[in-house]
Amino acid sequence: MKLILLDDNRETYEVLKDVASLSQSEIAYFTDIEEAKKYIQETPDIDGIISEVYVGGKPAVQIVHFTKKLNLQIPFIILTENISDEDKEYFQSLGVNQIMSKPFNPLEVLTEVVAYLKELKGEEYVKSRLKEDKSDRNSLKLVIEKIIEFFKNLFTRKKKDGV
Q: What pLDDT, in 10s, does the model give residues 94-113?
């Protein structure tokens, strides 16, 4: 499976990448919407987009509009720390499949992408795009350790910031 992540926080990418690697999926990471648009045009087999509401100071709605113009049939998930009900309705009216709160469970995010992809393209397509790497039994343990580390760092940072 080939996914795009637009987020200013590299930690988000690291955690999602590690979880995605369990199915030998790839995540292309961008902090700039224009670079992501170029990648989308050059890469025909993208399976989903995960984005923060604002990336590099620009609204993710730009990438939503761009994918709609290209008539891409792919899941789109927004990650955010807080969003108004009006913004949720607006994103959903544009075709965003899911809006998930940060901190998030990376397994849940990727599961949502797979579920929406099954709805859009069918189960056989999804099976053809997912590959389980059974040769590395320790990879799940390493991913879980990274997820725990990610949340510890996040909560430590929030505590430090007084949130």
A: 889 999 988 888 888 988 89
